Structures are given as C-alpha cells and as structure tokens.
TrEMBL record:
Higher taxonomy: Bacteria, Pseudomonadati, Bacteroidota, Flavobacteriia, Flavobacteriales
Name of the protein in its database record: Lipoprotein
Superkingdom, natural source: Bacteria
The organism of origin for this protein: Flavobacterium suncheonense GH29-5 = DSM 17707
Length: 167
C-alpha cells in the first residue's frame, strides 16, 4: 500500500512539473558553436524593440563541433513579443552556424530553419556578418561582441502573438 501511494505521489508530482513547464515560454535553437560561450537573450513584453538589460538573461553553451539543441527558458510569467539574441562573447568563437529555432508555449510551437530564419530575424550589421551560402554568422573584425540577431520587423511579433492564443 505504501509503495502504491509513493508511486501515485511521484506520478502526480511529475505531471504537475510538466504542466508548469508547459506554461513557460521556451525557445529551442539548433546551432554549432565550437567554443564554450554564452548567449544573451533579450525580450520585450510591449511589442517594441526597446531591449534592455533588465529584460534579458544569459544561457551558457558548451562548445561542440556538431549541432546541438539549446533549450532557452524565459522567466516565469514572461510573454515575449519581440526577442533579440546576442550569440556569444568569447573572442575565440569562430563562425556560428544557426540551423533552426522553435518557440514553444503551452504545447504549441512554430519554427523556422535555414534561410527562413531570416524572415523572423535580421543580423545587426554593425557587428555581424552572415555568409548566405553556408548560413555562418561571424563577428565583424575588432568587435568585442559576437553576432547579434534582432527581430525582422513585426514578423516575429505576429508569430509570438499567435502562439500565445493558440488553442
């Protein structure tokens, strides 16, 4: 009897954790980053692109020579309307291959891969170079920050808004 109650309690707790997890806004990205680094994620909740440090967070990335999926979880109660990605600070980081992204909220998602990524994001031309053939992102010479991706107009905002109200 004790074992049955314990198993039931564990299953119930795990179910609650999954339900709470589905309430978080997530962004999964598929990238190749060969060196250990960090990604700074900025977001706004008001539809603007007025990004600031107060609405940003860091995600550590372990360098790998192959594709890796990075799970980015937005803070609890954050419902982003626009998102910016600063892809690293490590000056030894070479090119970054950004293969795919997907936004997930309440078990619904939308994704883009390859060239379709740039329908939703644009490079920051002051510090980023995009090789359109290979999809490689690199920092411009003498820039301390890595490549940055900003929202491309309101395409991203529209998709994020749709995701919030999907049933």
């Amino acid at each position: 009897m004790y074992k049955a109650i314990l198993v039931f309690s564990l299953c119930f707790f795990a179910s609650c954790m999954r339900d709470n997890d589905s309430q978080l806004y997530r962004m999964n990205i598929d990238v190749v980053m060969k060196q250990n680094d960090s990604i700074q994620v900025f977001y706004t909740n008001d539809g603007t692109i007025n990004f600031n440090e107060g609405a940003s967070f860091w995600v550590k990335v372990k360098g790998k020579d192959k594709n890796q999926k990075i799970d980015i979880r937005f803070p609890k109660n954050a419902l982003p309307t626009q998102v910016r990605l600063d892809l690293g600070r490590n000056p030894k980081q070479g090119e970054i291959i950004f293969n795919k992204f997907e936004f997930v909220y309440k078990n619904h998602k939308f994704e883009a891969k390859g060239k379709d990524i740039y329908k939703y994001f644009r490079i920051d031309q002051s510090n980023t170079v995009l090789d359109e053939k290979s999809g490689a992102l690199t920092r411009k010479a003498q820039q301390p920050n890595g490549p940055s991706l900003y929202p491309n107009g309101y395409y991203l905002a529209v998709k994020l808004e749709e995701l919030k109200f999907k049933k």
